[in-house]
Structure formats: structure tokens, C-alpha cells
Amino acid sequence: MDPKQLCFLTVRELSERIRQKEISPVEVTQAYLDRVKAVDPQIRAYVTLTEEEARREAKEAEQAILAGGYRGPFHGVPIAHKDLFCTRGIRTTGGSGIFRDYVPSYDAGVVERMREAGAISLGKVNTHEFGLGATTQNPHTGCTRNPWDPERIPGGSSGGSGAAVAAGLCAAATGNDGGGSIRIPSSLCGIVGLKPTFGRVSNYGGFPWVGLWSVCHSGPMVHSVEDAALMLQALAGYDPRDPASRDIPVPDYTAGLNGGVKGLRLGIPRDYFYERLAPEVAEAAKAALQVLEGLGASLEEVSLPHIRYAYPALLAILSEASCAQDRLLRTHSLQELGPGVRTLAVLGFFVSTAVYLKAQQVRRLLLQELQEVFQKVDALVTPTLPLAAVKAGQATVTLGGVEEEFLDAIIRLTLPFNLTGSPALTVPCGFTASGLPIGLQVVGRAFEEAKVLRIGRAYEAATPWHERRPAI
User: Fold this and answer.
1) Which listed residue (15, 24, 121, 157) is catalytic?
2) Would residue 59 show up in a list of annotated catalytic residues for this protein?
3) Active site residue 181
4) Which of 52, 244, 302, 422 could disulfide-pair with 267, CB 3.0 to 4.6 Å?
5) What is this structure's pTM?
6) Is 202 known to be catalytic?
7) Catalytic entry in 15, 161, 181, 187
8) pLDDT per residue over 221-274, tens digit each?
9) 3-class SS string, 24-75
């Protein structure tokens, strides 16, 4: 097989070839390493490439498989880790100049899980500084580019993960999401991303700010919904080191994956989620709903009247993280932080206790409203983002005749479900006339990832969008 084609296979396709010994983990790993060297100078997804370690792990996987010790679908499959996850003996910067030389002595929970599954780590991929942004334009570790158009952003904060998967620089990548940081780059880069229920996947070993967020979810970024199910299977489970981790049985996420949507009730929250969209996004979302309806789902309009207060509430809640980082902020100059992060870093010092408590009240209200809606429908379906990827450096956008800050626009449809802790999946649902990906978001009840994945898989199987790859 052509090496480029090999690097664009899904995890399922790759793992079947490895399991049947048609190709070896050593061959696969070398193909990815060669492609990273050839393509990544244009994309800048990787901040640390661990060639020697990857080759060693590949050889160990090959020997184990030949000896009959096949561990499962990720055994021998090359992946990458977002540089907000600690990796034992491997530099972990958190996207920060302050930690440019930090080498942890332990692995994050998600890194451990993927290592146990037999995955081969190719290295660490870029992130917005401390995960506090949506562009992955990082003054310390470089600016990652979108594989569909290198003049545009990949989104963030897991932009390195999104770009690496989309460009065929790894088969899958870890990400985390505190306001959209898995779903935004997945949508902008034309891949599948899943934010599991809060507490479903361990946040242990996430980098400082991220590990403290009560809204952060770790999850997979991959080529297909089936790959998302396979990776969630590897990642999910209780971790006593994470105070938010929930000790709830992990189901088989692939068992009912192809069950279809016939008879399911899908909620369409037209207020807020379908307002002020770029025209091509609105058209793609409308077409996607028609596909789901044609597959047998019923579409029911629903209302979440207080959802507009999600953004200010999230900002107030995030202020707890900057307060918790008081020691770091007192031992390092604010000038060591990028300009966009400085404001967020000191946010906690300007948010009163009264405002913080009010934000928590809003959070409870939103969760209550969502639970009431989920008594009537099985899932919500919305556009993932109101627009496609913008050019690097673009600070504002105009949607529905209203000019607004890019950050405000890009997280508008994703952040509410960080406050509620709900599982949320993004799948490709079209492209703009200029060839930029558009995503569709499916949101479910807590710990109903299997149903969310089933809906996403039904849509994916009926459409061609997930099959497209960038020309790079």
C-alpha cells in the first residue's frame, strides 16, 4: 500500500491489517514518522517528536503480536498526545514558555490508558497556551496550521491534535475540552471528536490550569465515529486519582454502533444554536437534519431559554483556576504568558465570590433545563460551530450582521455543554465552497455516549464527508 494511503486509514482499518499480520507496527510507525518529517514543517502540529521511543514501542508491539499477545484495536497503532497531558520522561510544555523544559516523572491517566491498549506514541502535539484559547496560535511553541488551508487556523485548544489527525500525521490523538477544545479543532479540520461525559475519562495528569477546571473533559480525536467508540473504550473508566472520576460501569461502545436512528427523537434547539450562522453552515446543518429525518429519526423543536447565559457563567467559573494558580502567577512574570492568556490568567482576581456563586446557580439552572428537555428527546443536534476556519490572525467575524470577537463566536455553540457536563460528538457534515470542513454536533444525556455515537455513526454512514482527506 502507498505510504500516504496507509497514513490516512482509520484505526479500525489499520488495526485489522496489523491483527492479520498484513503489515507490522514497525512498518506503520516508520510510515508515519516519514510523513511527519515531510509534511509537518507546513502544518507545525508536533512540538516533540519521539522517534526512538516510537520505534522501540513498535518493535515491542510487533514481537508481542507475533507471539500471540494481541491486545486489541490500538495495539501497534501510532497516535499522538496533546501537550497538556503529562508524559513520563518526555517533555511536556503545556504550550507555555514557563514550562519549556519540564519533563514529568509520571503519565497522565489518558496516556496510561492508551499505553495499556498497546498504542504507540509518536510524540506531543501543539496546544493553545495552557489550553486557554481556540486558535493554537502559540507564541511559545509555534502556530499550527489547518491542513485544508495552511493560511487558516486549525482551531483549539487541541489544534495540534486536530491538524495531526486530519493531515495523516497520526492515526488518532488525545485532546481535552474545557469549552470546545476537542470539538472546535475537530470541526475545523474535518475529523470526528468526542467530549465524553464529565467524569467518564480521567483528567489526572492534565496540565495545571486544565486539571483544575470543573468543566474539562478528556477524549478522542479520530477519523471516524467507529474510531471514537474504540478509543473511548480504551480511555473510559474510573481513576481514583481524579476527584471528578465516576465509578460507573463502562459499556461496550461498539455493540450498538450500527443500530441506526429509526424511532429516535432528536431535539432541535433553534433558538440560540441556529441563530447567526454563516450561510454555508446553516445550509449544511439543514441538509444534515434532512438526512437524519430520512433515516427514520423524528425532529422535535425544543427550547433552552437560559442558554444565553452560559458564556458569562463559564468565564466566572474558570476564574477559580486562576485563583488556584496564585503561586505560579506570583513566581513568574505575566510577560512570560502570551497576550491572550494574560487576561484569563488574572481573571480570578477580578471575579467576586457573589459573581462566582451566581455563575454556579446559572450552571445548575442550565443542567435542570437540559434534563427536562431530555425527558422529551433522545439527543440534541446542532451545528458544532457557527462558521468555518478563519485566516490566522483574524480577530473578529461578522455573523448575522453582527461583528463580534472571534473567540466569542467560535465557542458559542460548544461551551454550554461543558457547563452541563454532557457528552457531545462532532462529525463532518459538509464543506464550504472554498473547501473548508463543517461539523455537526450531537449531544446526549450523561453517560449515554453509546447513543450519541450511534446517531453520529448513522449520519456518517449515510454521507460521504468523513471520507474526504486534505490534499497536503
Assistant:
1) 157
2) no
3) yes
4) 302
5) 0.97
6) no
7) 181
8) 999 999 999 999 999 999 999 999 999 999 999 999 999 999 999 999 999 999
9) CHHHHHHHHHHHHHHHHHHHCCEEEECHHHHHHHHHHHHHHHHCCCCCCCCC
